[in-house]
Amino acid sequence: MGLLTLDTHIDIRWPEPPDPLAEGPMRVDFPKMARGGLGAAVFIAYVPQGRRDEAGHAAAAARAEAMLRHIRARADGEARRFCATPDELLACHEAGALAVLSAVENGYAMGHDLGAPARWRALGACYLTLTHDGHNDLSDSARPREPLGDAAEEHGGLSPLGRQAVAALNAAGMLVDVSHVSKAGMMQAADVSRSPVVATHTACRALCDHPRGIDDAQLDMLRAVGGLAQITAVPSFLRPTPEGGKNPASVEDMADHVDHAVRRIGIEHVGLSSDFDGGGGVEGWQNAAETAGLTAALEWRGYGPRELGLLWSGNFLRIWRRAQAIAG
Q1: pLDDT tens digit string along 192-206?
Q2: Which residues pair with 297 in a beta bridge?
Q3: Among residues 45, 179, 19, which one has the least CA distance to residue 101?
Q4: Options 1.10.10.60, 3.20.20.140, 3.40.50.10490, 3.90.25.10; CATH of 6-327
């Protein structure tokens, strides 16, 4: 069995997603995955931050669940399988099929409904990203949005409801994704979660001081709780964008961030993702068909088969199993 390459964060277009069976305009579809050797992908039910009232929360919940059902329906037949557990993912890989997974981005979709994680888990979702851009009722965001009336911070990190949401995610067996969350909220979520937390699409602020990255203290916290930082292919997270110019970030910049995180917290706490179709794409890994470009850059840095296996999927599988064991 060869290397299992798992991309833990890929967006889809909504409400009219293209057919993934055909080569199309998106950075990820099934032909590109097959051609590039990307064996598994977590597709995202993303909900943009909106009005925090009953109608807004209801609409967000409906959108998230419709997207989860759509993602599950994309995987049909022997060539593509939907995977809701680590064992299903490994069996899919052994069978040579493409694996489709799902997750929810933005706890705004929960509203105040602490039963939502159990419903999402029943639909196959493996994690929830607590916030997106803009504060919600669960937590402060790393990027407040002035058009939504956000102050620099609202809750001082997690709200009391946010702490309850983390407990509900733990009980449902869903991972807690701390990408997009403010530093205070991220540290508090890591502290209160009974299962390891993950930043599914992030980068190292020590190398590029972007608010969506995580600093060394946050990396240290992830190691302390057995968690994971997934370095992602968003150019502006990896290197500063020149004034008025195009960001030249490449797989070499991704490898620099991987190197920094590995030196700081160890290979067991670092992984990889693209954020394709949500802003991701660097020279050498512009779409799923170029997945081998990132692997080659890491091999050139000296990462061998064991290390590549951990970075691409082994570490994520470990914490996902842990989350399910704690729920069980």
Answers
A1: 999 999 999 999 999
A2: none
A3: 45
A4: 3.20.20.140
